[in-house]
Amino acid sequence: MLLYIHIPFCDSKCFYCAFNSYVDRFHLKQTYMKAIEKQLIYDIEHYLKDEKIETVFIGGGTPSCVDFKEYENIFRIISPYLIENCEITSEANPNSATKEWLQGMRDLGVNRISFGVQSFNDKKLKYLNRAHNSNSAISAIQNAKCIGFNSINCDIIYGVQGDNFEKLKYDFNMINDQNIDHISAYSLTLEEGTKFFNKSHVKIDDEELSYKLFDYLKGLGYEQYEISNFSKSKKTQSKHNFGYWEYTNYLGIGTGAVGFVDNFRYYPNKNIEQYIENPISYEKEYMDEVDIKTEKVLLGLRSNVGVNLAIFNENELKKAKILIEEKKLYKVDNKIYNYNFLLADEISLFILD
């Protein structure tokens, strides 16, 4: 079982961000964290049962907006259920991840930090409405390394108006120069409810740029193991993300989070005030076999997880065989894998249609 905890507070709302987050509810921090504790206890009792928690991911929003002391009870609650050497990741923004906060979270048990850097270009950061600058990003990374975080990820966003290969090379070189072992590189998406939605001019659709960036990262030693994730070694890959792609059950704690147990997803209340009032009120979505199969294929082909051939019917197996013959897919033992993650959606639709 995986554990995801959502912290919805942010210093500023990025113009591309569609996640459930608030810049004007800081007065609710303490009561929200208490609500999280209540949901966590309930979910552990009803869904975890005799299982162990294999990974923890604290995301947002901005987890570093909340004082590390407010996480103490959460770690006290989950501690008995964690596997040995459990991967525990927290997202953080450079402007709020102070040295004191990083040290406090490490002392609680966090052993992996994911910084929302997005760019080392101050003009681009301002365009995205990020709350930090390039110097604060470098400082936060150096502080984390000084404290003893050996596993650090940096998020980079590309495909933004003004981006080009040289500018993005600079971002990746900056990360590599800091001896960071993991990069998540996301192409900008224009999602409903964001400032950038319906502003097509802010996004660059350039598939050739994506391929050039992937090749460049490989040259720096970052191997692609999912459409947006690159690591220096198998050891530094995100175990939590792999759990999602392998369709592992996960608890979803917090307003706007999502949990998945066996054949249903559950959704805590997206409204923070209503969530605080009743954190164990969920909407549930039951998944049928077709839904689960479709997601397994999509997730497997956009990552190194691959897809077990046993889930396909006779017609789908014939299509998979065609793709193997055409060198679009390759087979190892009883699983198929994708050469080109950018084609994952098209390949999946071809097989399943």
Secondary-structure blueprint:
Layout: E1 2-7, H1 29-48, E2 53-60, H2 72-78, E3 82-92, H3 99-108, E4 112-118, H4 122-127, H5 134-147, E5 151-158, H6 165-177, E6 182-187, H7 207-219, E7 223-226, E8 229-231, H8 239-245, E9 250-253, E10 259-261, E11 264-268, H9 272-277, E12 282-286, H10 289-301, E13 307-308, H11 314-325, E14 329-332, E15 335-338, H12 344-352
Parallel strand pairs: 1-2, 1-9, 2-3, 3-4, 4-5, 5-6
Antiparallel strand pairs: 6-8, 7-8, 10-11, 11-12, 13-15, 14-15
Helix pairs in contact: 1-2, 3-5, 6-7, 10-12, 11-12
Protein name: Heme chaperone HemW
Organism: Arcobacter nitrofigilis (strain ATCC 33309 / DSM 7299 / CCUG 15893 / LMG 7604 / NCTC 12251 / CI) (Campylobacter nitrofigilis)
GO molecular function: 4 iron, 4 sulfur cluster binding; coproporphyrinogen oxidase activity; metal ion binding
Distance between the termini: 31 Å
Question: Number of DSSP helices?
Answer: 12
Number of domains: 2
Low-confidence stretches: none
Mean pLDDT: 93
| Broad CATH class of the largest domain | Alpha Beta
- Please state the overall shape, judged from the principal axes of the Cα atoms: globular
Series of secondary-structure elements, N-terminal to C-terminal: EHEHEHEHHEHEHEEHEEEHEHEHEEH
The CATH topology of the largest domain: TIM Barrel
Tell me how many strands there are: 15
Q: Name the helicity range.
A: 25-40%
Strands of the widest sheet, in order across it, are: 7-8-6-5-4-3-2-1-9
> Beta fraction of the residues?
15-25%
Major sheet description: 9 strands, mixed
The CATH homology group name of the largest domain: Aldolase class I
Specify the structural class: alpha/beta
Radius of gyration: 20 Å
CATH architecture of the largest domain: Alpha-Beta Barrel
